[in-house]
């Protein structure tokens, strides 16, 4: 009989994800020598090399790559056993891993955390802020319980629950205050400042302007809405921001805000989680807290499963 431990599997999973002993050890809160010893014992137990080691990084062998996928499945199943036990209890307690995209987290996270802590004081809330593709990957792999993103994500293994619609506003220099909103055609002639590639909000802004790629006059790929708004305040160009970001991002910027004529650009904010998650009922309750935190009402037909 092969004797493996969950600790060894978690350490190997961390190493496979980070590709570096130091970073993997840090993520597991152990020393690098301790991690190395556990990986060596795992290799000896399985009778094969899992890694190709070099001075700066490690690479998985073919055997290691095949094992890594099986280990992720095992760890996800183990975590779901714990979720199943938690779901059978009357109270909602323990670890809750929530992912959020950067164009939502700064504006909703403080309110969501405050409300969840007040309503479920035994929850240990852990938040991951990154772009949608990474959130979906970590959710599918079982490293997150749920994520708050812009829908749709079109991942067959996930349940999507629409929470509310959010409008986009045009941000222009303060001198443009009171001038009419430009048409989509006029927007294509403006210096449109956008978030860097990978942000879904960038794609949504381009879609509204009927552009497949960034316009020739674009000067900036920013990593945050705050940078975009400050550049507009300096007279560099114009940008779009979601409604929830307005109070935070415009309070220290000399800009004008304009709503577009109908149909206004918008996005659907929603929550996603694995269809196999035992916490589905609790996560549906949390979706109500998210709407409460945003001051929005959920649409009547909110839940839907997205299929490829």
Automatic annotation (TrEMBL):
<dbReference type="GO" id="GO:0003677">
    <property type="term" value="F:DNA binding"/>
</dbReference>
<dbReference type="InterPro" id="IPR036390">
    <property type="entry name" value="WH_DNA-bd_sf"/>
</dbReference>
<dbReference type="Pfam" id="PF00126">
    <property type="entry name" value="HTH_1"/>
</dbReference>
<dbReference type="Pfam" id="PF03466">
    <property type="entry name" value="LysR_substrate"/>
</dbReference>
<keyword id="KW-0010">Activator</keyword>
<comment type="similarity">
    <text>Belongs to the LysR transcriptional regulatory family.</text>
</comment>
<keyword id="KW-0805">Transcription regulation</keyword>
<keyword id="KW-0238">DNA-binding</keyword>
<protein>
    <submittedName>
        <fullName>LysR family hydrogen peroxide-inducible transcriptional activator</fullName>
    </submittedName>
</protein>
<dbReference type="GO" id="GO:0032993">
    <property type="term" value="C:protein-DNA complex"/>
</dbReference>
<dbReference type="GO" id="GO:0003700">
    <property type="term" value="F:DNA-binding transcription factor activity"/>
</dbReference>
<feature type="domain" description="HTH lysR-type">
    <location>
        <begin position="4"/>
        <end position="61"/>
    </location>
</feature>
<comment type="function">
    <text>NodD regulates the expression of the nodABCFE genes which encode other nodulation proteins. NodD is also a negative regulator of its own expression. Binds flavonoids as inducers.</text>
</comment>
<dbReference type="InterPro" id="IPR036388">
    <property type="entry name" value="WH-like_DNA-bd_sf"/>
</dbReference>
<dbReference type="InterPro" id="IPR005119">
    <property type="entry name" value="LysR_subst-bd"/>
</dbReference>
<keyword id="KW-0804">Transcription</keyword>
<dbReference type="InterPro" id="IPR000847">
    <property type="entry name" value="LysR_HTH_N"/>
</dbReference>
């Amino acid at each position: 009989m092969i004797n493996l431990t969950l600790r060894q599997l978690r350490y190997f999973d961390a190493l496979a994800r980070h590709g570096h002993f130091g970073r993997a050890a840090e993520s597991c809160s152990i020393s690098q020598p301790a991690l190395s010893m556990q990986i060596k014992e795992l290799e000896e137990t399985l009778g094969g090399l899992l890694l190709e080691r070099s001075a700066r990084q490690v690479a998985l062998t073919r055997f290691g790559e095949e094992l890594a996928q099986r280990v992720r499945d095992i760890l996800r199943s183990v975590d779901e056993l714990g979720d199943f036990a938690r779901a059978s209890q009357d109270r909602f307690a323990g670890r809750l891993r929530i992912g959020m995209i950067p164009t939502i987290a700064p504006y909703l996270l403080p309110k969501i955390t405050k409300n969840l802590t007040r309503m479920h004081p035994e929850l240990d809330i852990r938040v991951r802020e990154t772009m949608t593709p990474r959130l979906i990957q970590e959710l599918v792999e079982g490293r997150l319980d749920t994520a708050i993103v812009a829908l749709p994500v079109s991942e067959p293994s996930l349940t999507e629950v629409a929470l509310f619609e959010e409008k986009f506003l045009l941000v222009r220099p303060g001198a443009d205050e009171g001038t009419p909103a430009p048409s989509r055609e006029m927007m294509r002639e403006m210096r449109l400042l956008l978030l860097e590639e990978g942000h879904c909000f960038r794609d949504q802004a381009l879609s509204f302007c009927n552009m497949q790629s960034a316009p020739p006059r674009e000067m900036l790929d920013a990593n945050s809405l705050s940078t975009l708004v400050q550049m507009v305040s300096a007279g560099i160009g114009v940008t779009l921001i979601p409604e929830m970001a307005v109070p935070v991002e415009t309070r220290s910027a000399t800009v004008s805000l304009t709503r577009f004529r109908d149909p206004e650009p918008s996005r659907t904010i929603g929550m996603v989680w694995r269809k196999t998650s035992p916490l589905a009922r609790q996560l549906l309750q949390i979706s109500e807290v998210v709407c409460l935190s945003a001051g929005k009402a959920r649409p009547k037909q909110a839940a839907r499963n997205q299929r490829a």
